[in-house]
Design a protein that fits this description.
By secondary structure, the chain is α/β, with parallel strands linked by helices. The chain folds into two domains: 6-31 and 168-248, Rossmann fold (3-Layer(aba) Sandwich); 43-146, no CATH class. It is built from nine helices and six strands, in the order βαβααααααβαββαβ. Strand 5, helix 9 (225-241) and strand 6 (247-248) form a beta-alpha-beta unit. Helix 3 (65-81) crosses helix 6, helix 5 packs across helix 6 and helix 7 packs parallel to helix 8. It is elongated. The structure holds zinc ion. Residues 95, 97, 105, 107-108 line the site of zinc ion.
C-alpha cells in the first residue's frame, strides 16, 4: 500500500478536462502506464447490467419480461456488491416524472430503453453514453434498496484492490454525490479534484448532487493544453510533497 502516491477523484462538468488532467498528472509523476489504475464509478453498474442482460435473453416471449429484467438488475447488482438480495423497487417508487417534471424519469427512460433494445447490447465504458437509461436506473434503484453509499463502497473496495496491487496513482471518475466521496474515502486517502473550464460553470441539471461535493482542490482550466500541463506539473510536485493546494490556475 505504501507505494501509492495518491488517489484522486475528479468531479466537475463534462468536457472540463478531467481525463486530460489525470493523464498529465500521471505523466508528470513519471508513472508507467501499468501502475496507473482508473476506477470508473459506472464500472460496477455496467457489469451488473450486463449480467442481468445475459440472464434476460431467455425472456423474449415472456409477457412479464420487463418486470423480471428489473429484478435481475437488482439481483446481479446486489451479488456484485456482496449485499443481501432484495427485489427491485416498485415502478411507482422509481417514477419521478410527476414529482420532478423538469428532469428525466429513471423508470420511463429504462422502460423505453428495454422496449427498444431488449437489453441486447453489451455495455462498456465506450458505449455507456448511448445507454444511460439502465445505468441511471440501476444506480438509483440500488441506492433505494441498499442505501446511498452502496456504490461508493464498491468503488472504494476497487480502489483498495488497485492500491494493494501496487498502483502508484489511482484515479476515480464519475463521482456524483457527497455519499460517494465519503464511502470511497473510508478505503483510502482520497483527494477530490474539481475541474472547471473557463467561465463555464457547472450547469448540468441531471447532476444536482454533485454540487454538494466539497472538493479538496479546484482547478481552473483556461482551455489550453499548455496551461493544463503547467497545472499538472504543479499538482504532481505538491502530491509528492504530501498534499494539494486548494486552487490551481487562478
Ligand atoms: Zn416515469
Amino acid at each position: 500500500m505504501g507505494e501509492t502516491i495518491a488517489v484522486l477523484a475528479f468531479s466537475g462538468p463534462k468536457r472540463a478536462g478531467k481525463s486530460e488532467l489525470a493523464r498529465m498528472i500521471s505523466e508528470k509523476l513519471n508513472i508507467e502506464r501499468g501502475r496507473v489504475a482508473d476506477v470508473e464509478f459506472s464500472d460496477p453498474i455496467i457489469e451488473a447490467t450486463n449480467s442481468a442482460a445475459t440472464e434476460a435473453r431467455e425472456l423474449v416471449e415472456d409477457p412479464r419480461a420487463y418486470e423480471k429484467f428489473r429484478n435481475y438488475m437488482v439481483k446481479h447488482a446486489t451479488q456484485l456488491v456482496g449485499e443481501d438480495e432484495k427485489s427491485a423497487p416498485s415502478a411507482e417508487a422509481m417514477h419521478t416524472h410527476e414529482r420532478r417534471a423538469d428532469q428525466d424519469c429513471p423508470e420511463c427512460d429504462m422502460k423505453n430503453w428495454y422496449d427498444e433494445t431488449r437489453a441486447g447490447t453489451e455495455l462498456s465504458r465506450e458505449n455507456k453514453a448511448e445507454h444511460r437509461a439502465p445505468l441511471v436506473w440501476l444506480g438509483v434503484a440500488l441506492r433505494d434498496t441498499h442505501g446511498p453509499r452502496v456504490w461508493g463502497e464498491e468503488v472504494g473496495r476497487r480502489v483498495e484492490r488497485a492500491m494493494e496491487a501496487g498502483s502508484k496513482l489511482v484515479t476515480v471518475g464519475g463521482v456524483r454525490s457527497p455519499e460517494d466521496v465519503a464511502a470511497i474515502g473510508e478505503h483510502s486517502n482520497l483527494f477530490v479534484v474539481k475541474v472547471i473550464r473557463g467561465e463555464d460553470a457547472d450547469r448540468d441539471a441531471t447532476n444536482q448532487r454533485r454540487h454538494q461535493i466539497k472538493p479538496d482542490c479546484v482547478v481552473h482550466n483556461k482551455g489550453t493544453l499548455e496551461d493544463l500541463e503547467i497545472i499538472a506539473g504543479l499538482m504532481a510536485d505538491d502530491l509528492v510533497g504530501g498534499g494539494l493546494k486548494p486552487e490551481y490556475g487562478v
